[in-house]
Fold:
Amino acid sequence: MRRAALPWLAAAMLGVATGCYHLGYEPDRAVGRTLAVPIFDNQTLRRHLEHDLTRHVRRELLESTSYHLAPQGPGVPELRGAIVAVQEGVLIAGSAEEVFYGELRVQVSAGVYLDGRLVAGEDTDGDGVPDAEFTLSGLAERDTTRGEDRASAADEALRDVAEMLALRLQGRVDDRHEPNQEAASAAPLQPGLQRALIQRDPDLYRIELPERRALRVTLYHDDTGLTQRLVGAGRATARDGGRILELVGGEEAGSHVIEVNGPCEGARYALLVEVLDDDPYEPNQDAAHATPLPRGALLRLLGRDEDWFVVERPAGREVEVVLRGPFSAMACDARGLPLRGVKREELEGGERLLVPAGEGSVFVRVQGDGTARAYVIQAR
Structure:
């Protein structure tokens, strides 16, 4: 969907090590179910995140676990942690370098301590005793065309961490969707980020797709060899080594099943489910319905099918068309025949067309591939 002019984060790391995953050490029985949760440390320059994270962790522990919160004091186990890194990547487009899309990841380390001794954390050597704090990464994506901003993305990433941390402290060996290893018991998923998932056997999920919509499912994992595929009827396009599945729906609503599987029992992962609308410029599959492309305007579309645009060419001046995305553009006349003298120049993440000066309108055709990947186009 997104090609960036600047580097942007491609995935979220959901565990502390590569390969097969060790489940967290179950807290010492003497700890009981009472915890003190002091404010997390913040080792980054992003201020105030520590207060939001602390609030989300306390709420998640109260709402989804059997832990009770208590003040700090002698004999009271403490959940101590720190925000150790914040990373952000963006997709920009246009001469003004406007941000269209961004990903933000927050990395946190945390563990439960009792009288200075770590009693709940990672058991990296498998001896049944914790020897390191949990390392967790929360991911959030933001699309500025939908009014999403950096603050909301940061809050979502922190809630992601809070949910994963609560799951670790429960010592659960399965996620909330089990059993879902068969199509008949596939767990229904709603659009959004599905966090704290655990693959111990084939995991099947059912997603409802309305008519004339596109589906994108992104799999995040810590390089554990997990894969995803579409089960049953339909055709999905895999991108980024299978990390992203895209499917274009038909004229009627449908139900689709996605399977996640891999070689490492206990691997943790997350799924981002997105249901995409047709872009607001449809239908524009021919010259008669071509979308006007004013000079200087920047349009964002989905490559479901062929898109036509019309650009008014001022007398005596050439026209420049810039496309950023996974598709290619062609300058043509109303019959779809290529114009002569057009120069094509490759750009990072796209291309530029230079149409020589002349009379009349210029049509531009962009041939989609049915995957509903996004692109942006601008006339200058």
